[in-house]
Amino acid sequence: MPTQLPAKRPSTQLATLETVLERAKGYSDAARAENTRRAYEADWRHFEFWCKTHGLSPLPALPGTLAAYLAAHAPELKVSTLGRRLAAIRAVHLYAGQSIDLAAPALRDVWTGIRRTHGGQQTKKRALLTADLRKAVAILPDSVIGIRDRALLLIGFASAMRRSELAAIVVGNKPGHRVRFTDKGLVIEVGRSKSDQESKGAVIGIPFGSHAETCPVRALRAWLDASGITSGPVFRSVTRHGHINKSAMTGHGIALAVKRAVFRTALADGYDKKAAYTLADTVGGHSLRAGFVTSADAAGAPIAKVMEQARHVRFETTRGYIREADAFRDNAVSYLGL
Fold first, then answer.
1. SS3 162
2. C-alpha span between 251 and 157 (Å, rounded)
3. Are residues 294 and 196 in contact, defined by beta-carbon separation less than 8 angstroms?
4. In CATH, what number is assigned to the domain containing residue 26?
5. In terms of residue numbers, what domain contains 269?
């Protein structure tokens, strides 16, 4: 008689299926950057809570529900934030096999009206130019926070990295954007970023500066020596008593460091506290990246090299950073003799 093969155990099949589903979830999670995924999860929780509070269904959600949600939060949230929340809600529906009619008049007209009404109110943070940076780092104290902020500002400016990327810089064999020193300066090996969702990676080089007091390479070495950091996050949160934590700074913390530096500079320039706070509110973490692009272009750096350092894929993106400065370059009005 032929040997009968033993039947597969259902429990084994179930375990295998669970393993495959878990693996699939991992790949699905990897499809989006970590920051985007966290933002989407928070956005969905907010929408879900709002719907339950008002007795509405979050999944599936009717176009009228989405329109009401957007209208309710339009006065307090940026249009870009509302747009991201709309994308998050749509993503959850698609993942659940549901659909949302974004072209439904009840939703389309409200969303268009919100963008027209509030879209022009979006304000970009002011670029921190080279002259601003020199003044800012010159008056930073030689405290633990001052040494850290000096390195943070100079590296952030020279690397043209986003604030989330700055927070992810590491030394040693740790996950993140690894930094290493060379005889020509330093190299930052960037993994996944906003413009590199496929994780092809990039290498950012920062050469030694011409002036010791504003050299990003020396500033970073000074911070690592002062902090004793040999492995893990480079830019870490520091308590007011000078205790260095093990965790990396947040993007918000980096933005506050930039604001704090501008506030100090404004006071040194003779501004009163109220005016200094107002000036500090015009900058943020993105001011370093914007400042690099604007300053490098104004100094005559080849636009291709500027794009390469900033890792811009499209020229229009770079052009958007330098448009205001470009408005005065060789302006036709200067020929009129006014």
1. coil
2. 15
3. no
4. 1.10.150.130
5. 130-326
Which residues of the chain form beta strands (DSSP E)? Answer: 169-171, 177-182, 185-190, 202-207, 232-233, 236-238, 244-248
List active site positions. 162, 194, 286, 289, 312, 321
Into how many domains does the chain fold? 2
CB-based burial of residue 136 (10 Å sphere; 0-12 exposed, 13-18 middle, 19+ buried)? buried
* Residue 250 falls in which region: left (phi positive, over 0), alpha (psi -120 to 50) or beta: beta
Q: How far is CA 87 from the centre of its chain?
A: 18
Do 224 and 153 lie in one domain? The reply is yes
The model carries a pTM of 0.67
Coil vs helix vs strand at 251: helix
Any idea which of 24-38, 44-58, 205-219 has the lowest mean pLDDT? 24-38
d(CA 26, CA 295): 41
Helix pair angle (144-159, 216-227), 10° resolution: 140
> Which segment of 71-75, 159-163, 166-170, 313-317 scores lowest on mean pLDDT?
313-317
Q: Are both 159 and 58 inside the same structural domain?
A: no
Average pLDDT, the chain: 85
Residue 122 contacts residue 79 (beta carbons within 8 Å):
yes
Return d(Cα 300, Cα 190) in angstroms, integer: 26
Residue 283 has pLDDT above 90, yes or no: yes
- Kindly list the distances between the CA atom of residue 75 and the CA atoms of 19, 68, 184, 198, in Å, as whole numbers in the listed order: 45, 13, 50, 36
Of 28 and 283, the one with more pLDDT: 283
Q: At which residue do the structure tokens 């040997």 appear?
A: 3
As a whole number of angstroms, the distance between CA 220 and CA 152 comes to 8
Are 309 and 159 within 8 A, CB to CB?
A: yes
Q: Which residue has the tokens 């870009």?
A: 80
Q: In what order do the strands lie in the sheet with 169-171?
A: 202-207, 185-190, 177-182, 169-171, 232-233
